[in-house]
Amino acid sequence: MTEVDHRTLSIPDGLDGERVDAALARLFGLSRTRAADLVASGHVKVDGDAVAKSHRVEPGALLEVSIPTEADPLEVVPEIVEGIKIIHDDDSIVVIDKPVGVAVHPSPGWGGQTVVGHLAAAGFRIATSGASERQGIVQRLDVGTSGVMVICKSEHAYSLLKNAFRRRTVDKTYHALVQGHPDPFEGTIDAPIGRHPRHDYKFAVMADGRHSVTHYETLEAHRFASLLQVHLETGRTHQIRVHMQALKHPCVGDLTYGADPVLARRVGLERQWLHAVRLGFEHPDTGDYVSYDSTYPDDLQHALDVIRDAD
Known about the structure:
CATH architecture of the largest domain: 2-Layer Sandwich
Distance between the termini: 52 Å
Domain RNA-binding S4: 18-75
CATH class of the largest domain: Alpha Beta
Organism: Nocardioides aestuarii
Enzyme class: isomerase
Keywords: Isomerase, RNA-binding
Radius of gyration: 25 Å
Number of strands: 15
Family: Belongs to the pseudouridine synthase RluA family.
């Protein structure tokens, strides 16, 4: 629950005739915008009555303010997330199947559920290495991307796997349903990726972007779309989605990166058809190669079935 700080005081003589939002800002050290928001949301009363922000205060008037505590956007909030499956768990790592609509860790602008919040609520103790909101995290999946991922429980595992991802020795395999038919059916996309120049929530192929390499092969070719198996050599944000758009074969349902909204509705998708199906690496304790798999969730399986039936 949100905590609320209740404060009551009399308007001093020095604020005679001031607007209530300005008086509030000066009395409590708030920004003028924050003060105006509190007034507009009904958290401020003068002599027992709610007022508009333009109300002029008089000395001796009783000012009552309820100030909700602003939550830290990076705070890890323990919360069980329905749909997260534990694929593997030992003293060093926990491997999960992440559902769509869940972020890996908290970030500014995201108020939804997170993987680290679920693990905290479920009693998992994970490594403390890394920034506080993403301790133990050595890889990420987009909120709109589902599939298999690993989180480190020990500091030793964190160090080794962080290095493995950095050296690109981790095998990351995705399946993507893309519009049309890539030509050639099998290939490599080597194109640098940077933040979009006009939309800061998007990325794009940019001459001054970071080195990004995606390998793909066609598993199934259908009338409207192709199912690809994708191996990431690098791990840039939105890499597969950006590279598929650059090929003019965006992921089905990925409206952010140029997908056809009509086709998205036809297959019943509200997110990109992209799933992390397999993750392979050397186990940080044993050194043995291990591999973990994830099956398609219901929404992606349904969309693929519709595409297959349309042939």
